[in-house]
Please model this.
Amino acid sequence: MSKRLSWFIILVLVLGYFFLYGPIVSLVFFSFNASKLVTVWGGFSTKWYGQLINDDQVITAFLLSLKIALISSTIATILGTVAGYVLARFGLFRGRTVLSGMVTAPLVMPEVITGLSMLLLFVQMQQLFGWPTRGTLTITIAHITFTMSYIAVVMQSRFSTLDISLVEAAQDLGARPLKTFFVITLPIVAPAIVSGFLLGFTISIDDLVITSFTSGPGANTLPMVIFSKVRLGLNPEINALATLIITVVALGVIASTIYMAQAEKRRQRDMQMAVQANE
Amino acid sequence: MSNDASVKGGRLNRAPGAPFIGRVLRGMGIQPRLAVILIPYVWLVLFFMIPFLIVLKISFAELAIAQPPYSPLLVCSDPEISSTWLCFVEGKISVHLSTKSYVGIVSEYGKSFYDTLYVKAYWNSVVTAFFSTIICLLIGYPMAYGIARSSSTVRNLLMMMIILPFWTSFLIRIYAWMGLLKDSGVINNALLWLGVIDSPLSMMNTQFAVYVGIVYSYLPFMILPLYANLEKMDLTLLEAAADLGCKPLKAFFVITVPLSLPGIVAGSMLVFIPAVGEYVIPELLGGSNTVMIGRELVNVFYQNRDWPAACALAIAVLLLLVVPITLYQYYQNKEAEAGK
Model:
């Protein structure tokens, strides 16, 4: 049924997208403003970009954020994939409800509470064992914990829709469980793992609240630096930084959408060929 | 999860000729299957469950001049025994639980129940989250509906544009609104230039700004589940209704809305739950009078250094969220069942 949409729906869509993108467009527009007063146009200039590149605080914070996001989302992807696999494929085992609860709880827990509880754990641990010192390590542990939940949910839904007959075929042909997992299951779910990793990476690099709670002296991530600058008011340098972030994200999302669409097409074609070959 | 999967899972692990890792684990008396389960389990118990129990424990402590600043849970009645364990063995240990922090939330010296800071912060958080959810639903539903009913190429493009802001920095999207809402901001400048207003509207640091920030940040979370639901709806139902003489608007309210109820609940909870505990938005866009519970929790922890009070607040927020979280999971499970 391809009936034309009513004028009301079209109006809401136009206004809705204007609402979503208007602020972003304005942000990007004023990053090229020569005036220090961010919202008063004073001619075209790229000087804030120059200032941004020479801002050591921002660069150091960015590199730290990148490091934490890479390490934590890699480990979280492994843990989240295992958790998703266990929840989707292991059936009922003792403690499944607890595991499933622990996986989904961080998703719905307010960030201030997750942050507070992690900080109190690290304080307690430091008291008892003298380890870990608060800083990059504690931020990374916190990020692994809450990003693995997102990844586990993605992986659980992927594993539960997995065609079990392929796994059974491999086992019938004598492949051991571990080999079957790495040779059959893993390649099939690889796209989901990649999107899980990207999701974890974005959440980690963007997090402010949990990071601030678990951070220690000297360990300032990019969102922490942005927050401390933005609190004092508008700052043209942040507009420039925002424009760079938005550009990278937009390119990334568009590229991955195209890639996914092509991978899906390829998969369909392969499956058709396999079916034809069998006939 | 069906039982049949567990049977399959069981068979997978009894494949002939155990591999090396399996042999090592079995040698240690651990089933490989158990080892796999333990990996995420141990991590989550250590870094999710235990932290939560620590919060619960501290919430029942009292503020004390100590490092860390709260009274211990286990108190030894004999001051000469230094080790807690020895004290326990001798049976002189007592558990010290105080509800002082919880009482502190609902009572403040010289103020009525409704005027205490935390009760006000609670109420304001719930009201703000509630109305933000309603506004998101009113904007998000027609949008999700429009996207779901457009042609498939347009649909993918529109959905990508909904998801795109989600991948960009949350903080930066809030910052964008600071530039728009300020007294000398873009909106005021435009309105002054157009001659609609004579003096700038004060929008920044108000409750209004907090609403704008929350609705803006969480709108995609409302649209995503609604779209997923509306997209797979059986449109022949609407045709049948039309054939039987039902007007489109009536068919929408009698058929489409009830069928999309799981999507409405999921979207609403995804907006309401994080909005209640929101910290960044009231901190950046709100004023000193927009008290919200997430912000108060941070203040009480870092400025008053009252750890037990912060923990009691955290537990109280979780109690508040139990109902919406349960509701969300109930509908999620129902969806998952229906999908099978």
